[in-house]
Each structure stands twice: as C-alpha cells, then as structure tokens.
Input
Amino acid sequence: MKERIKQYAKKLNIEYTGIAPVCRYDDLEKRLYRRREKFGINQFEETDIEKRVNPLVTFPLANSIVVCIFPYYTGEDEGANVSRYARIPDYHTVIKYKLQQIADFIKLESNAKCECFADTGVLHDRYLAYLAGLGFFGVNNCLINEKYGSYFFIGYIVTELQLEPDRPQKKECLKCANCVKNCPGGALDGEGGFDTKRCVSYITQIKELTEEQVSILKEQEMIYGCDRCQEMCPHNTNPVKTPIKEFYEKRQSKLEKNELLVMSNKEFKQKYKDFPFSWRGKAVILKNFDK
Output
C-alpha cells in the first residue's frame, strides 16, 4: 500500500513522498526548547510544544503520516521584490488539492480516515519531511532535497492507516556558512539556530516593527519575503524547475508602491487573491516600502 500511494502521487507530479512515524518526537522537542530559550517565540508559531512534538495529542487515532514535497522554483524575474515562493499561485490551494486526491485514494483503497495539511497544521512539517527521508537540514534551517535543493513546500496527510515509516537520510549540508554570512538580518547562529524576529521574511509579514527590525528592512529591497539564505546555498546552484504545472499559471514578481496607494484593501485582496502574500493585506505590504 505504501508503494501504491507513492506511485499514485507520482501521477500527480509529486516526485517525492515519504512516510513519517506517529510517535513522540523527543529530538524535535529538544530543538524547539533550545530555540525558544535562545530566541523566544514568534506570533505565527504554535506555542504548545507538546502539540508540535506529539501527533497523538491532536490526532489520537493516527498511525502514519504521508509527507510530500512540492518544488516551486519556476525561473528568475529581473527586478523582483517578492520572494520566489510568493510570486506563483497560492501554494496552500495547490497543495491541499493534490493532497486531497491522495487522501481520497487512500480512503478508496483502505477506508482509512485522513486529514490534509498544507502549512496549516500544528506539526513541524520540515521535521516530518526529514523523518520521511525527503531531505536533510541545512545550517540555514531549511530542509534540503537532493534534487530540488530547498525550493519546495511541504504538505502532509495524517491517516489512521498503518504504513511502514521511511528512514531519515544520513546526509548533511556542506556547512559552508554562506547563509550565515549573507543573512540580511543576522538571523542564523551557524548551529542550526534561527531567530525568526530578525528574519527579513518574517519582518515583511508582521504589522508592527521594532526599531531594530526597521533598520534591518532598510538594508535590502525585498517587499515580501526573502530568499537570501537560499540563494547563497550551494545546494541550490542551478536549481531545477518544478514539474507542477499549476505554479506556472500566474506570476507576480514585483509590487509597486504607487499602485498600492490608490487601491482599497478590498481591491488589493481581489487583485492578488491568488497569491500567497495577499493574506497579510495591503497595509502590511505597504509598510515595507516606507523604510
């Protein structure tokens, strides 16, 4: 059944699928507490660590987690000020649709219940993908896949179907520290630690900024998101384009301040509703120009 699920996923242009175990992730717990003690927490993450490290807290009937990666690199855009992942149609919609197809296949074959998550669940998706053998962690805190580097999204299906888990890869990143040296906000500590509050991507998504965050934003051109730590990573040299056709359907690589100024928030949401950055609203995006 495990191989049949993977083969079905490939028919949906999902090349990499793995199975993560349902258990308590003690190693992840240690990582999360270390990061919290050193850097605190941010407004977007789940505060209850037990929910993040123990799937059975939220999904008491779960037996397996099917994890898929969705490459999103579609090429370069001159003068872009929007991160690569946000220039393309909203990944939440694309991923959820494909995951639901896999979930329907599982239900049809086994009658097992499933729940799908595309960057919307309480579990730590990168850690699940690591456990499922889909990549290894980089110093930049990203998960790195052997073919697509770190330019991919992660989605997962929690199911009551019992499947044999895959094994984590034993590979490691090159530890060149290019990401640490070139991070605009100095968010990376070089040991896998990550201060989200100094990350440009995080700063461009929050409403209120500290003086330090304003200073960080002034030093670069991005209006939404940041790709610097990925651009400098040798694992992303000559990135491979995604086979997922939905990510080529629309493109918005640059936002203009003058255009946003004359739009209402409703007009903004309507025009950009198909892109990942629209959820933050016009005001949050507009504040990133005023630096």
